[in-house]
Amino acid sequence: MISFDNVTKRYPNGYDALSQVNFSLASGEMAFLTGHSGAGKSTLLKLLMLMERPSNGRVLMGNQDLATLSNRQIPYHRRRVGVVFQNHQLLFDRSVFENIVLPLRICGFDPADATRRARAALDKVGLLDKEKLNPVVLSGGEQQRVGIARAIVHKPQVLLADEPTGNLDPKLSEEVMRLFQQFNQVGTTVLIASHDLGLIARMPHRVITLNRGRLVADGK
Ligand SMILES: Nc1ncnc2c1ncn2[C@@H]1O[C@H](COP(=O)(O)OP(=O)(O)OP(=O)(O)O)[C@@H](O)[C@H]1O
């Protein structure tokens, strides 16, 4: 589903955030991406979202070389990818429900269908009873679950997360990870960047480790 083939990412200032990275993630697999601050985790996720392009090598998703996609095709590419950020990036002038339904409306979903899907996504993360609230009144863990509902509402094949538990206590972090596992169990390919080594060690998934832009370990 995801494949990095000798990928190097050099930023315009000449810094190599990723150097000759090789790995593949099978469809339906779940893995963690770890490494020190600045190791290149976010850069790797940005290449998958087409927020950045590689300087060398190829990034493939579902056997498609992402370099073949023009900037005009990026919105279509992003529909097969769901992304969860550490700081949620929620709209605080809208209700929880509107935060989830808006991306679907923007994609042109029929309004009734969009409403049904948004409610189903909120139900999956256990927040259906809070749909009318403004996300600003929710706890950090609940806000993160709104972020997850928004990431999965369009049923993406691939779910990416960048430090999704960064602001959460250990119990809430485990709950969020369990949610990712549930989506993975129904077939979504999941890649989570995290430097919470304790949490990662308690989970049975593959761990890909970056160090100064190089892939230095890959295993259970
Ligand atoms: N647009 C940019 N221009 C120049 N350098 C950049 C740019 N974006 C990131 N970098 C550098 O690339 C390196 C990798 O950054 P990246 O954000 O991918 O690391 P990270 O592993 O996600 O770190 P963190 O865990 O702190 O978020 C860092 O040294 C960073 O300063």
From TrEMBL:
Keyword Cell division attached: yes
An example Gene Ontology CC term for this record: plasma membrane
Gene3D superfamilies: P-loop containing nucleotide triphosphate hydrolases (3.40.50.300)
Subcellular location: Cell inner membrane; Cell membrane
GO MF: ATP binding; ATP hydrolysis activity; transmembrane transporter activity
Every ABC transporter domain range: 2-220
Pfam family, one: ABC_tran
Membrane topology classification: Peripheral membrane protein
Name of the protein this chain belongs to: Cell division ATP-binding protein FtsE
Source organism (scientific name): Amphritea opalescens
